[in-house]
Write a structure and sequence with these properties.
By secondary structure, this protein is an all-alpha fold. The chain is built from ten helices and no strands.
């Protein structure tokens, strides 16, 4: 069990290193880390490269999270695979293959939770969607989603609560600049909601 657990964690972390936004940006001669917000996630891919790149980024990020947890479940079972959620998340946020400069991990977290408990993931998605369409800001939805993860875990998957708390904390810290801008009313709306474009 111990060796299989280590293998599951390593696989999840490595899968987290896959960065579709970075790959697409490089193919266009762009350094995604030097454009827009400097983040390798979906929102910045959308801002810098357009809707198609944004859609591809979110789909791949979700898919890698789901695959990582499914592999973990096959190798070590449901409960231990909860730590694969954290591993693929950390691989996305701090990817060794990209000098530890990744995204904020929201889409990957959703994908991982989807692979672990689909109902919990879908409930969180509905909450996030409502917040995003109300606020027109992905950062607000991401923060609410991060907070909802441990809350939902308490009722649906209590054994994964430590993982959820760690990830919530990291996501909130990664969004510190967004939080400051929100407080000052300076956080821009998502480009798909910006009628001036």
């Amino acid at each position: 069990m111990t060796l299989k657990f280590i293998i599951a964690i390593v696989i999840a972390y490595v899968l987290g290193n896959i960065s579709p936004s970075t790959i697409m940006a490089r193919s266009r001669g762009i350094d995604i880390k030097k454009e827009g917000s400097g983040n390798a996630g979906t929102t910045n891919a959308l801002r810098v490269m357009g809707k198609k790149a944004g859609v591809i980024t979110v789909l791949v990020d979700v898919f890698k999270g789901t695959v990582a947890v499914i592999i973990g479940t096959i190798l070590v079972g449901h409960n231990p695979a909860g730590w694969c959620i954290l591993a693929v998340f950390l691989g996305h946020v701090w990817p060794v293959l990209l000098d530890f400069k990744g995204g904020k991990g929201v889409a990957t977290t959703f994908g991982a939770v989807l692979g672990y408990n689909p109902l919990m993931a879908l409930i969180a998605l509905v909450v996030v969607a409502i917040v995003v369409f109300t606020s027109k800001r992905m950062s607000v939805g991401s923060l609410v989603g991060a907070i909802s993860f441990p809350i939902l875990s308490i009722f649906m998957e209590p054994h994964v609560l430590p993982v959820a708390i760690i990830m919530m904390t990291i996501i909130i810290v990664k969004h510190k600049d967004n939080i400051v801008r929100l407080i000052h009313g300076e956080e821009p709306v998502m480009s798909i909601f910006d009628k001036s474009k």
